[in-house]
Design a protein that fits this description.
Number of strands: 9
Order of helices and strands: EEHEHEHEHEHEHEHHEH
CATH superfamily: Spore Coat Polysaccharide Biosynthesis Protein SpsA, Chain A
Largest sheet: 9 strands, mixed
Strand order of the largest sheet: 1-2-5-4-3-6-8-7-9
Length: 265
């Protein structure tokens, strides 16, 4: 049985679809972590990837939160089909685009576990790293950032990797984060830390992950880096698209620097 709750925000209406009755929900064991997955136009892979993820999570006490950011394809309808057979999954859906950062911010507010892990739905990162991320987040009290090796990333294409290396070098020079990979979407942190950070972050698009790290460093929140195995089997996007995205990211990075210098944070 599916129940639906609507939450109104300044940006959009957010629909929360839950597959269980209230009485059954009360009997659930408290999850050890909440796994947040933002999605947009992922109809081609969403069912396959969530089935893989669900099989892995059978041995974990996990709350799975999937947030559909107003997809234009059949992502949301397919998510509702997956939801029926996944009682530990919380499905959220926005009626207008929020951006990756906007979906994560709202999902973090709904997380019921003491630790949150954020990852992309393509499962490029090795799922076997989840226990290490969770353990490090709980022990350090800060954020744990997964870092991809350059060699693992060459499947994305030479130009994209070079642009990413240049971007990460610039971020380290501007903000002295000590992090090699500011763009990896695989992260973990205690829920209270996640709520503190996401309540302040201003960017909801390409540099959301970067701003999260920059803000954590500024607030004195520990940052732990761990290497992960990573494989990208998605079709390559055009070089022109990555160049345009790179220009946007540089503009957003300048805005983060201005916020940093003017003590907006």
């Amino acid at each position: 049985m599916l129940s639906t709750t609507w939450i109104e925000t300044e940006a959009a209406d957010i629909q929360i679809v839950d597959p269980t009755l209230f009485e059954l929900k009360q009997e659930k064991k408290a999850p050890s972590f909440s796994l947040i997955i933002p999605v947009y136009n992922e109809a081609d892979i969403i069912v396959e990837k969530l089935n893989v993820l669900s099989r892995y999570l059978e041995r974990e006490s996990c709350e799975l939160i999937v947030f559909d950011d107003c997809s234009k394809d059949k992502t949301y309808s397919r998510l509702k089909e997956v939801l029926v057979t996944n009682p530990n999954m919380l499905l959220m859906h926005s009626t207008s685009r929020l951006g990756k950062g906007g979906t994560i911010k709202n999902a973090v507010r709904k997380a019921s576990a003491g630790t949150v892990i954020i990852m992309d739905v393509d499962l490029s990162a090795d799922l076997g790293s989840i226990p290490e991320l969770m353990r490090e987040a709980n022990e350090s009290g800060g954020i744990v950032v997964a870092e991809r090796s350059t060699s693992d990333r060459y499947s994305q294409g030479f130009l994209r990797v070079m642009l990413s290396l240049a971007y990460n070098t610039l971020v380290r020079l501007l903000f002295r984060t000590g992090v090699r990979d500011h763009q990896c979407g695989f992260k973990a942190m205690r829920t209270d830390v996640a709520r503190r950070l996401t309540a302040t972050i201003r960017n909801n698009e390409f540099v959301f992950d970067t701003e999260l790290i920059v803000l954590a460093r500024k607030l004195g929140i520990p940052i732990k880096r761990i290497p992960v195995k990573w494989r990208d089997d998605r079709p390559k996007k055009s070089n022109l698209k990555w160049i345009r995205n790179g220009v946007t990211m540089m503009k957003d990075l300048i805005m983060i620097k201005i916020s940093d210098r003017t003590k907006v944070y």
